[in-house]
Design goal:
Layout: E1 4-7, H1 13-22, E2 28-30, H2 33-37, E3 41-44, H3 49-58, H4 62-70, E4 75-78, H5 80-85, E5 86-90, E6 102-107, E7 117-122, E8 131-136, E9 140-144, E10 149-153, E11 163-168, E12 171-174, H6 185-198
Parallel strand pairs: 1-2, 1-3, 3-4, 4-12, 5-6
Antiparallel strand pairs: 6-9, 7-8, 10-11, 11-12
This protein binds glutamine.
Glutamine is lined by residues 46-49, 79-80, 83, 108-109, 136-137.
Amino acid sequence: APTIGVLALQGDVREHLRVLRELGVEPVTVRRVAELDACDGLVIPGGESTTMAKLARTFEIFEPLRDRIKQGLPVFGTCAGMILLADRVLDGAAGQETFGGLDVTVRRNAFGRQVDSSERDLELAGLAAPVHAVLIRAPWVEEVGDGVEVLARVADGPAAGRIVAVRQGPLLATSFHPEVGGDSRVHEMFVDLVREASA
Ligand code: GLN
């Protein structure tokens, strides 16, 4: 079975570990390069993207992770994790760094100007029934490159049409938090991506 890690520097690590365990994956926490090296796939949780990037520097895992992503490591980023996968960030903190890999422009705290957090049901490409999406000071994707598949958009309200889930090869990212709310289908999609990549 492939080894799936959860980047455990900051954020909602436990929630991701729980969903992965429910899916029968025995996840590992990742703070050090040796732990990253053992992974066939990695989840970057929600939390605070600037803090996570700084801690990645402190733990000397920033460059190794950036390189692994370039080499094709499957990664699933939720919320702050989506920001950290993005090649370009709008409304970022001064000097905000990302691991990159995903050819998108995200706007940080994009929904935050209207409302700090919200919940809604979204149609997500590849899933038969809508997914319950919890958005907490969430980014949206403002622009996607050619190789990026849009999986979900906000259906209505002031943010109607905004992109909130994308995939590019083995990289998957959501603005929302599938790790909260008891729906494991998006994680299942990711586990399938990891299985495909390591087959
Ligand atoms: N607003 C956070 C950031 O910019 C992301 C919020 C979240 O992950 N729930 O990093």
